[in-house]
Amino acid sequence: ESLYRVPSAITYTVRQLEESLGVSLFSRHGRRAELTAAGEELLREGRHLLQAAGELEARVKRVATGVETELAIAFSDLFRADPLYPILQAFYRESFGTRVRLLREVYGGSWDALTTGRADISLGAPGDAPPGGGYVTKVMGTLEFAFAVAPLHPLATLPQPLQNQDIMQYRSISAADTSRNLPPRTSGILTGQDVLTVPDMYCKLQAQIGGLGVGYLPKSLAERYAALGELVILQVAEPKPEAQSFLAWRSNGGKAQQWFIKQLEQLKLEQLMM
Predict the structure, then answer these.
(1) β-pair type (215-218, 70-76)
(2) Which end of the chain is more exposed for a tag (fewer CB within 10 A), N or C?
(3) Long-range contact list for 219-223, CB < 8 A, 24+ apart?
(4) What is residue 189's predicted lDDT score, i.e. its pLDDT?
(5) Residue 22 φ/ψ region, left for φ over 0, alpha for ψ in the -120 to 50 degree band, beta for the rest
(6) CA 99 – CA 84 distance, rounded (Å)
(7) Residues with Cβ within 8 Å of residue 108, at least 6 apart in sequence
(8) What CA dihedral angle connects 125, 130, 132 and 134, to 10 degrees?
(9) Rounded to an integer, what distance in angstroms lies between the CA atom of residue 182 and that of residue 81?
(10) Using an 8 Å Cβ cutoff, are 135 and 120 in contact?
């Protein structure tokens, strides 16, 4: 009834399908017919295939109307992910049908992801943009840094401001740049200084709290843990300069990207910082 076809037409179609597959899909007992194990598998997997075919058709139509099938957003390891979730909820309510991927990038990896096509949007790309173009940038704000060590670290007892020759005697903690094609960036490491490289800013923070080494942290982050007594902020003779943080996006984006840019432009740097 739901197919608007007579039973004999359906029986004929099923027999053709069985012949083409070379298996029995139904076991027949008089007027009754029950699915075989092969028939149940075909039904189960066939539903998945039909759904996938429908999704493919919808994605093709979206491409034709200027809506991306996928969108990758890279965000700095200095940022928390949770401020992005309300934006994603609103995005899904718009029914774009675009699949979104979030990528966490460290330092120059934020630019690398954008320029190599791994990401369509980069949130919190730091410092100078690489040459080449093909993208648009907007300043989000300025990042300030503070030199911080564990309270029991030997540097905490020296006169301030600390000189470079004092600092270089102790291990620096560095978050590994995730660039794949652009030259990796480093900052705050002195020539000849021992370095412990960790995956991201959170690991760097924990390593410095644990006394494994020293280094610069975002000022707001360092101040928070200094207030808890887990870090000590020290004055240095040659401090790390401030750096701008950018929202950047590829200039050939579609409607989904344009929607995201409007929302991300409203975020404040302090909302995102760890």
Answers:
(1) unpaired
(2) N
(3) 219/143, 219/144, 219/145, 219/146, 220/144, 220/270, 220/273, 221/273, 221/274, 222/145, 222/146, 222/148, 223/146
(4) 86
(5) left
(6) 15
(7) 126, 127, 177, 178, 179, 182, 183, 184, 185
(8) 10
(9) 25
(10) no
DSSP 3-state of 172: strand
Alpha-carbon distance values, 37 to 11, 28, 180, 189 (Å) = 18, 13, 49, 65
List residues bridging with 138 in a β-sheet: 247
Question: With the CA atoms of 211, 216, 219 and 222 taken in that order, what torsion angle do they form, in degrees rounded to the nearest 10?
Answer: 0
Q: How far apart are CA 197 and CA 222, in angstroms?
A: 19
Residue-wise pLDDT for 93-144, tens only, equals 999 989 999 999 999 999 999 998 899 999 999 988 888 778 999 999 999 9
Q: Is the pLDDT of residue 209 over 90?
A: yes
Give the ranges where the chain is alpha helix by DSSP (H): 7-21, 37-64, 85-93, 109-115, 164-167, 201-209, 219-227, 255-264, 269-272
Residues paired with residue 216 on neighbouring β-strands, in sequence order? 147
Coil, helix or strand at residue 171: coil
- Give the DSSP H or E segment for 143: strand 135-143
What's this model's pTM, rounded to 2 decimal places? Answer: 0.76
A 10 A CB-CB count for 148 gives 28
Token pair 């300043």: residue: 139
State the maximum Cα–Cα separation within the chain, in Å, rounded to a whole number.
Answer: 97
Q: Which residues contact 42 (CB under 8 A, 6 or more apart)?
A: 21, 25
Mean pLDDT confidence for 76-89: 97
